Amino acid sequence: MLYRWLVLLRRHMYVLLAAAAVLFFAYYYLAGTIVREIKASLLPSEAKLIATGLMEYVVLKLQIAALLTAVTLLVLVALLAVRYTGYSPGIKSLLWLTASAAMLLAGFVLTYRLLLPQTVGILTLLTTRAGVMAYYTVGQFVMFVFVTALLFTLCFLLPVLIAWLAVHGVVSVDTLKRRRRHFYLATVTLTAIITADPTPVSQLMLSVPMILLFELTLLLVSVMKRLRE
């Protein structure tokens, strides 16, 4: 199987390399727009973005282009794998994919429109209250936004994963209900680690939706279990 995969990738290597080059230059061109959008949406009026090096802004655009190109290529390789294996997703698979996409979209919107502005605002407020001017390097600020948005968005796939495990009998609903306190503790601990906000505001803004989604997932899986019985 691995040999077939290597042969398949070799056959499409030139196509993938050409696609990577086109995507990289396209994303590099759009990187400036992305930086301006992040600055306009998330940078508080009290803070300023600066470049501490001659190549810092160019390197940042290269990083953005490389990151987005890698993500797009992973999707293309996944589609190529589906076509190669001849797998035809059924209704259930499409429902799981739709649920995953919806949760990712909801997580990104919540993160970008609510969590990140709150976190950046609090951190800037703590800085200015200490009598320090808030000057952020453009590279660190934008990559902080990218990494935080990615981590927070991926967290919203957890309810879908739990539901999939419960529906397929890997984990029972009763076990999940008995261990819900462990999930609460793990969620609060995880959000405390990945949130850069030293105050509990961002931690609560992320952990509360995760706990509510967990309880909603248990409810939906319990209803599905009763219907199947």
Strand content: under 5%
In DSSP terms, counting alpha (H) and pi (I) runs of 4 or more, how many helices? 9
Summarize model confidence as the mean pLDDT: 81
- Helix and strand succession? HHEHHEHHHHH
**Strand tally, please?**
2
Largest sheet: 2 strands, parallel
Shape: flat
Structural summary, described in words:
The structure is a single chain. The chain has 229 residues and is mainly alpha-helical. It has 9 helices and 2 strands; from the N terminus they run ααβααβααααα. The chain has a two-stranded parallel ribbon. Helix 4 packs across helix 5 (138-155) and helix 6 packs parallel to helix 9. The longest helix is centred in the middle third of the chain and has 39 residues, at 91-129. The radius of gyration is 21 Å and the shape is flat. The model has no long low-confidence stretch (mean pLDDT 81).
